[in-house]
Amino acid sequence: MSDFNVAIVGCGVVADWHADRGYAYLKDLVRVATVCDTRRDRAEALAARIGAKPVDNLDTVLADPSIHGVDLCVPHHLHASLALKVLAAGKHVLVEKPLATTVEDGEKMVAAAAEKSLVLCMNEQYPFSEPFLRAREMIQAGEIGKLVTIRTHRVGYLHEIWMRDGWRQNAKIAGGGMLLDQGCHYTSIVRMLAGEVASVAAFTTKNRDDWAAEDTAILILKFQSGLIGEALYCWGTQTPEVGAECYVYGERGHLRINSSAPCLVLYRSDVPGGRQVIIAEPQHPPIFTLTIGNWVQAALGRQAPTYPGSQGLADLKVVMTAYRSADSGKIEHV
Q1: CATH value at residue 72
Q2: What is the end-to-end Cα distance of the chain in Å, rounded?
Q3: Beta bridge partners of 36
Q4: Burial class (CB in 10 A: 0-12, 13-18, 19+), 23
Q5: Are 190 and 132 in contact (CB under 8 A)?
Q6: Which of 234, 220, 221, 148 is nearest to 191 (CA)?
Q7: Which residues, 6 or more positions from 114, have their beta carbon under 8 angstroms from its beta carbon?
Q8: Which of 75, 110, 125 is the endpoint of a domain?
Q9: What is the DSSP string of 47-104?
Q10: What is the DSSP string of 176-221?
Q11: Are residues 323 and 189 in the same domain?
Q12: What is the largest CA-CA distance in the chain?
């Protein structure tokens, strides 16, 4: 019997992922009791598949005293308004990235959770990812020497199910383009491995005719430590190979870090062949078991939240600074 009942709000692709790659493995800890979508057919389809109750109105969820937490799987422009309603109703919140579409809204969410002593968490994978956690340990242990630079990227071509409903192509709903949608996600990587970002110089452009906002962005990052790095985001190329998600370069070598195999590779001249695979295969069960499980355990008071709303807000501030820089043509401070 689970200790915690959840309602999933928003029954699109991400809700399917949460259900199949998270809650399905956590049945002793948490139960998805209700699923909610303004499109009743979607709520009914997901509910039938996972054994939950379908509803088409958030107020129904908020009025149910048996629901302890709400997992928001909705378009970006709804994150803040719905999270604030859920928190006001006294329920814990898990929200997808980005935290909000403005820093002001993100601050309101964090403040509301603190005021109510509720747990607001980001469903952010990288702080739970074994390759990235191990890379941080290796960096802190000096295994590649003093850091010289860091680079992260998200490059590819968004299509198929991710374009199905059209909201990502609508900047008013999405809150922006590629930079907001993925920038917070990958900012979590560089902050995790290299510390806080102090200033940003950014350029954005649009290449696709089926996209309203930017589909490509390049950020030059200066960290509080003085380190400089780069982030590259692009949804305009159908290339089949884009390399790893992150490269960290030190004076003695570098790390190649990825969520897919090989996951973590050390390059250093004193290892045989100059290359050592540290982690070969992705972890199992899926990482959503860790992100969702941590939120639930934190809500139950059993452990601290690994990625609370305040961390998502820090990521959002970097991304919004990048937008300011792209608009002003100047280096902007976070």
Answers
A1: 3.40.50.720
A2: 46
A3: 9, 55
A4: buried
A5: no
A6: 221
A7: none
A8: 125
A9: HHHHT-EEES-HHHHHT-TT--EEEE-S-GGGHHHHHHHHHHTT-EEEEPSSS-SSHH
A10: SSHHHHHHHHHHHHHHHHH--EEEEEEEEE---TT-SS-SEEEEEE
A11: yes
A12: 62
Question: Is residue 168 in some structural domain?
Answer: yes
Q: Tokens 């954005």 — which residue?
A: 204
Tell which of 95, 125, 155 closes a domain: 125
Verify that 9 and 97 share a domain, yes or no. Answer: yes
User: Which tokens in the block code for residue 230?
Assistant: 């780069």
Residues 141, 217: one domain?
Answer: yes
The answer to whether 132 and 152 are in contact (CB under 8 A) is: no
Does 329 lie in the same domain as 203? yes
Q: How many domains would you assign to the chain?
A: 2
Q: How far apart are CA 286 and CA 16, in angstroms?
A: 13
Q: Determine contact, residues 233/181, Cβ cutoff 8 Å.
A: no
Q: What is the pTM of this model?
A: 0.95
Question: pLDDT digit of tens for each residue in the chain (334 aa)?
Answer: 578 999 999 999 999 999 999 999 999 999 999 999 999 999 999 999 999 999 999 999 999 999 999 999 999 999 999 999 999 999 999 999 999 999 999 999 999 999 999 999 999 999 999 999 999 999 999 999 999 999 999 999 887 777 677 667 777 777 789 999 999 999 999 999 999 999 999 999 999 888 888 999 999 999 999 999 999 999 999 988 888 899 999 999 999 999 988 999 999 999 999 999 999 998 788 999 999 999 999 999 999 999 999 999 999 999 999 999 999 999 999 9
- DSSP annotation of 159: -
Query: Considering the domain boundaries, does residue 189 fall inside one?
Result: yes
Domain membership of residue 199 as a residue range: 126-286+317-333
Token pair listed for 330: 């100047």
